[in-house]
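Tokens help. Our protein:
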Amino acid sequence: MPRVIPVLLVSNGYLVKPVAFRKPVYIGDPINAVKIFNEKEVDELVVLDIDASARGAGVNFDLVESIASEAFMPVGYGGGVCSTADATRIIGAGLEKVVLGKSAHETPAAVAEISAQIGSQSTVVSVDAKRKRFGSGYEVMVNNGKTRSRMDPVAFAQRAVQLGAGEILLSSIDREGSRAGYDLDLIRSVAVEVSVPTVAIGGAGELQHLAEGLSVGASAVGAGTMFVQNGKHKAVLITYPSPAELQRLGQPDALGGGTL
């Protein structure tokens, strides 16, 4: 069964949904969303505090503990994590994975230290990539997409793996919230160059997009807008594919056209 992961974005403790990492719109209470995904028997969840690092706020441990007390599925958490103490406290609270973003760029040694402490299987590095304004290729952005790293996403991901990351969370800033489909070139370029699973997020709007992401090398696909907003008016509605739909995603004819 393909891994299809809802990705919840949080700011100041509230569930939000930005577009291209800008102008986040209030959606609701993240814990209510976790409870609904429990009911839908989601296998895995990612929660990202999108501006904790940029604000210097650190990890929202109250939120971490609330998620841990409600979630029936494995959860990865990112936002403000910068030390082994942060990581071990998150894992100790009952979550399964820690997602590193800004700290993986500014203090790469933190990836190795955290991986040694909690294990590579629990250490995820987030790679937020944006197409270069001039020329070809992509650049990794940090601080919730506000700061240029001047690093290529492939090189960034490879360094993360060398330091001990057991998974790469690859996000297309340009496609995020668009529901226009994943940036398949970006996924393909990174997934084939790293030896650990690549989770693609940013742009999914329908089941066909999930199948496309998997077809170009993603080990798993994630989505936010697709699972928390509905229709052209973006009404809040928590959804998730049925078991039959998930099964279809992994079949050879999943890209054969029509609806999955």
Q: What stands out?
A: DSSP finds eleven helices and 14 strands in the chain. The chain has one domain: 3-255. The mean pLDDT is 92.
